Predict the 3D structure of the following.
Amino acid sequence: MGTKRILVIEDDRRLQDLLREYLATFGFEVKAVGHAREGLDALEAFAPALVILDLMLPDIDGFEACREIRRRGATPIIMLTARTDVADRVAGLEIGADDYVPKPFEPRELVARIQAVLRRGEPAQAQPAGESLSFGRLRVDRGAREAFLDEVPLGLTTTEFEALSLLAGSAGRVLDRDALLRELRGLESDVYNRSIDIAMSRLRQKLGDDAKAPTFIKTVRGAGYVFIAKADDHA
């Protein structure tokens, strides 16, 4: 496996240098830029495995930069910010960030979060590489890590795909929110008690699923979520 590339979009030069040097000790290749536009330009040429994105940038608001990165693909995003408002953290998750780290932070914690997000983008060892689950119009290809509705790719983020894969792989069984949180995040954090709901909301939108009359994912009040679609006989 080649060196994983990390794109850091952060205007604090000292933090840029710290992240570049510290992440290199864990085998990451780091490109650091100070403006959102530079980061967006680097997305295609540098092809990072993950983006670390500061919320407060001098040219483009971090939320808008996150939206643009998400419009261009499913590259995982970890947002950084000195803001303490939980609403800001939730907003970042709602627009597609995979994780959120408040400043100041311990570099080792950031590495742990990077590794957790990247692990979610890798095929699970227990799953056959080519396993595909089919539920009528929906197909979940675990080998390619892509989901299709009427054979049209849904363009899911890492978190969205992992949530769908977990639920579809346990169809008919209620998965509680804490278990989903552990599987998807790998770390505990108070803000993430809403992140599962946010991920499910985004996933339902892409599936065209109505929360009040669901076809795929049903909320079990006080318990969690259950995938209710029936698997095809040949799946």
Notes: The helical segments are 13-24, 36-46, 62-72, 86-94, 107-120, 158-169, 177-185, 195-207. The longest strand covers residues 5-9.
